[in-house]
Design a protein that fits this description.
heterotrimer; A mainly alpha (300); B alpha/beta (268); C alpha/beta (320); A: 300 residues; mainly alpha; 0% strand; C: 320 residues; alpha/beta; 8-stranded mixed beta sheet; globular
Amino acid sequence: MTIRLPTWIGSAVFTVKRVWKRRVRFRVGLIIVSAITLLAILSPFIVPYPSEGWGLIPLNNTNVSGQPPSLNHLFGTDDKGRDLFSRVLLGSSTALLQIVLVVGVSLVIGLTLGVLAAYYKGLVEYSLNYLIEVFLALPAILIAIPLKMAFGPGLHVIIASMVLTWWAWYGRVASVYARSVCEMDYVVIPKLSGLPGYKIVVRHVLRNVSPPVIVQAVTDFGSVLLEASAINFLGFGLPPDYPDWGVIAQNGLYYITKMPWISLIPGFFIMVTALGFSMIGDALRDELDPKLRRRWRLWF
Amino acid sequence: MLETPGGQDYLVKVENVTAGYLSVKSFSSLTKTFTPVLRDINLSLRDGERVAVIGESGSGKTTLLKVILGLLKPVKGRVLIEGLDIYSSRKAWLRAVKKLGYVPQDPFKALDPRVKIKTSLMEPLETSRYSREEVNRLIKEAVKLVGLPEEVIEYYPSSLSGGMLQRVLIARALINRPKLFLLDEPTSSLDVSTQAQIINLINKIYHNYKMGILLVTHDLAVAQYLAERVIILREGRVIEEGFFEDVILNPRHEYTRLLVKSYMMEPI
Amino acid sequence: MVLAVESKGLSIGYLDEEDRVLWVVKNVDMQVREGEIYCLVGESGCGKTTLGSSIAGVLPPYSVTRGELVIYGRRVIKDVLRSYEGVRGKLTSYIPQNPGSSLSPYMRIWDQFWRVLREQGLNEKTAKERATAILKTLSLGQGVLEHYPHELSGGMQQRVAIGLSLATGAKVLVADEPTSSVDANLKLQLMRLFKDVRDNYGVTIVLITHDILLAGKACDRIAVMYAGEIVEEGDSTSVLTRPLHPYTKLLVDVVPMLGFKKTLASIPGEPPKPGLLREGCYFYERCPFRDEVCLNHVETQVIDGRRVKCWKPLVDKTTS
């Protein structure tokens, strides 16, 4: 029995294969991202010191605290004696979790609102544009601070504050694409057959607007990671015991001269991961833009 | 032009229509400015009649089609399709619009690029209660009628050329057996050789089904092959109408005379 | 007789995403005489725009070339190498299809003229006089110089674009589909303008169009293109009234004409997609006069000073 895959998977695979062949940047980026993703998935199973890693047991083992990298502790231990390798390893899964949640939820909200606004136009569109401008101007940290004060630090705070600012970005991108899609006759003609509005929106508008917006979202992964890590680093997102790269970096800030590895190692991971994502994004964008197709001929 | 009271005799009757676009000035003032595009338009078409509306860009011809399709409500006047005022209620519009078959201008923008031809052709039949077999049969018939091979329905629009896409659009417009065929610049985006094929196709369909045809175009020569009566639109007003031969040989308006002249084979 | 443009065996192709070459101009020999209005006529995909771009020097970087192209004795294309130094923008000038888009929206018309004329070493006063003189021959007043492009109508923008081309001092103007977005009654006016420009300035004009009747009215010589080849080249009146190539004849027959017979001739099938290569005649499938020989054999003949790419052209078959 053959399973029919939707066509977009086929074209996605084709594009990936082609970009892989042609651009070095893509290969490097994809390797980095795949490695991090693999780590993130496996980390809960392979973490050497799980209780220390998850920060469940507030450790204050001064015997082993502040140790530089060694065989026992690959990345050393932090100021509270917790194994840094475990924390950083688990940090990969929290990083990915935050990225996926933030981008995913923002996409859903932004796409829906953007598409609806472009289709129904009028007051709906006008107010949405207004909202988008307001929310785009807000930095996520500004929302994180009161949220943390009110509800205490936690995953809900960081996700909520980032989603509240990022949805507007996808809302704008979606509404711009949707505006031109709604001009197309294949959106007008079903109306003439009596098809109800919501069916047209889902079937024709959403289907055609989603791909470029999703591509845009994928290229945003790096930026989302950087922003989330920054907020966590400042202490307005996740609590200080949480295995998150930004949080760990903050832990080690006070000891940066004596025990630099505590801050530098997670910082390095943030940088490399973000770089990997941005390389993929760049390569995809270059590949998909036909004007940038180049083969420099000999000009004399 | 003969004026007959009541709209029942006509397939389409446009009465004293003035239509245009509103634009919101600013959020705070909420004042809207109205730009009229069509002024005092009167047009009528009987069953089986073929009328061409000729106008240059900016003359309002696309707006006229939108008004007749029920997509743009006129600020003055009304539009009757088989006696029904299509702007009186949504129900009236839904009933009337089923009798119309619309072929839009740009074949590349008129089909959803993400769905197969088959699905695009199925869509107009969705609101009617046809069985699956009937739908398939109607699709195959329509494709055959426009001279395309049956396999075409499994393709995506990107695999087809402009001429083939135009035929698909005609097939889609025909699939509900409409009484009025509305064509917006059916050949403007096509090559000369394909244009000729489409003109012949439309004529062939007309001779088989004798439905009404309302054609909107800027090309007087093309229109002459497809219609008997012509209406000349300029800056939103009807400046001339009548049978083709009369308008070409005895134009009443200077603009018409110049228009006809530009189609004649004259050296520079 | 000076040849403004000459090509020998010129082929131009584009690289697609998989780095394969799609040939859109195949082995073209053409000759454009100085001071004439020469039309490249054909349907979409026949290669006329690419050929025109190669003359103007605006081929994109992902294009490939073979053969030779010579402009006023300067070889600009020699197989894969291209050299437009001193030719592009100086000897040749390109007027794109949408003239408004070639005008910078942020500069006044005068600034755009100044940018061109400054290159020629003129001082501001002389440049302004020259610009005004050029605009005058195009029926535009001096006031136009103060405006921005978006303040002018489409027709005026087109004339400004032509004026800028003339200001460069170019001797060959390549106009890409100048009448496509123009209303019917203005088409003839525009063609008359090109003729006036040629008469006043002695430039050579290469016109790219799909409208064969317009080409017949406005041009001295026509080159009919199909599938990347020139299938017929010669004096425009005789090409249109007594076509030698079957495609030319059909191209004239299928144009809807006002006031004539009610049934329209048509060519079955579709124009071929670019990239196809074959030994014989590309028009084979659609030609009503075809013969088995045509599939493998095609030759260029010279009849009555015209060149035809058909081994049995329509001699002694007259059409009106």
